[in-house]
Protein 1
Amino acid sequence: MLSYTPFLPALRHALAPMGSRTTQTLHQVCAHTLCQLESALGRWMPISLFPKAPAKENSRDQHYTRWRSFWCMLWQAFNPDASCREVVRQLQALFELEGGPQISQEDGAYCRAKARLPLAEFPKALGATAQAAERLTPAMTLLRGRPLKAVDGSALTLSDTPKNRKAYPPLQCPDIPSFPMMRIVVLFSVLSGAISALASGSWANSELALLSSLSQHLIAGDILLGDRGFGCYPLIAWVKLSLGVDFIGRTTRRVDGRRRLRRLAPNDWLILWKRGPRASPWLSALQWAGLPKEMTLRIVRGRCHAKGFRVRQVTLVTTLLDPELYPAQQILQAYLRRWRLEMCLDDLKTTLKMEFLRSRTPQMAQKEVFMRLIAHNLIRCTAAQAATEHHVALERVSFKGSVDALRHFSHAMARARSRKKRQQLWAQLLRTLAADLVPERPDRREPRAVKRKKNKYPRLNAPRRTFRDHPKRNFRRKCARLRSLGLM
């Protein structure tokens, strides 16, 4: 640097400002993106993620570094309709603004840079953002303050490519075009609503098998919340005896209160469950043999009145047997909070458009899912900070409103000239989120139905070159007239 040269010591004070501005400009071009999401959200992402490779690809800091490629993918997650070409145009504008190098107008280099990102770093980023959201959210006193984690599953549609079909075979439905299907199972934090872990597989993989692969994310002392799909004897016994995790959820097994062991309170009793005769396919033979033949469980039955909850009276099974330490009303409240987390998957599919993945290879599809979940967690961090600083309920901070506000405030922060101005913009963003709350809608139902059909066109159930369009109305009328005149 000129400011440290030993040859011109008398001019060092005059050359230092020039060297400082040059260094700052080069650093901004090398590390930042045009919208500079990293300046707003980078505090919740460890800087050790996506390091520079020691050799071969990404061993030198070229235009598409690992860190820049990650933040460009995150920008695409916030803008699901944006293409890779649009990302390249942003980098072209950034380099032209900061005096950087000229890059190719094609998006091939950016797509190859995304493919080179190591898949093992994405779960680390997901866990880091979930922990950041936990730190920003005040602790709960529900169920003696024990960590509450909810599990839920869903299915996603992938692009119809040979590689995706091989990894995620589609459903075989006659006369209906089928697409590759990916089944996912996620672990939510009931406290913050952030997603801490993800397991994915084909449609043939069961949700119980995918949950068993997430056992390292369940710590002894946790309480796991699940719906009917998870309320079976093998899972309850496995998480309780092998992992030291308690369970609360519904079950498909019929419960007869007349055969109870002991009555604890009205609609609250202990029962004896026996293991079924057939082994579960998702457990190994050794694990199945290690399960006890019977367990004492607790049944809590009550009426649930909550916004968006479809079932008014529920029957819950749990391993929390002490009614004094864990009252029945708190168990019902914990299960109601799980329903709000189930709506988070709807936020991901609707707002971030995760229902259909555009990636053409299985590995890129997994990265795309992780990026949407990381974007979801960062939105949760922003909402949690706004709710904590301005003393509002976290459930009433709008997810869609947070996405829109963060998307536009990040552009304003990128134009800010000083750190103080960026901090003022961030404070204004938090005030905006805390002021624009979702209205309270008591007893509002959320049925799983749509008001409008998407379109009236027939399905493309054949290859394009062999598909026959439905004849237009004018053509049908013309043929009818010709037939009536005997000319056809």
Protein 2
Amino acid sequence: MELIPLHKLFSVQYGNSFDLNVLELCDENDPDKVNYVSRTRENNGISAFVKLRDDMDPFDSGLITVAGSGNSVLESFIQYSPFYTGYHVFLLKPLKYMSDFEKLFYCFCIRQNQYKYSFGRQANKTLKDILVPKEIPTEYRLQ
């Protein structure tokens, strides 16, 4: 199985690093709500619902978010709704079309590297270079 750096499959960028206290919290049913993704491993990384800001468009659904530091370093999730991010959250956008199944596979692969970041190590500088399979191995593909 050929391994390649993550940046060969995804555009890796930093999120918008909003502090939750500068955003307006709202109810999950609010029509102007946007998910707030932080470095939590709970609830697909979503830690709050906030009001849409006039000065900042949210990120598009379908991107993968990855925690770059903290106790949940390398927790990775597909975001199914538009969202803002907190500090040290990265965005992965596939360089070519990927199904949700493929994205979930790469979330799994990223998480398998968590052991390298124990004792407070951060993935902020090294995330883009984490090695992952170039393609999904045959035994993992959907039939």
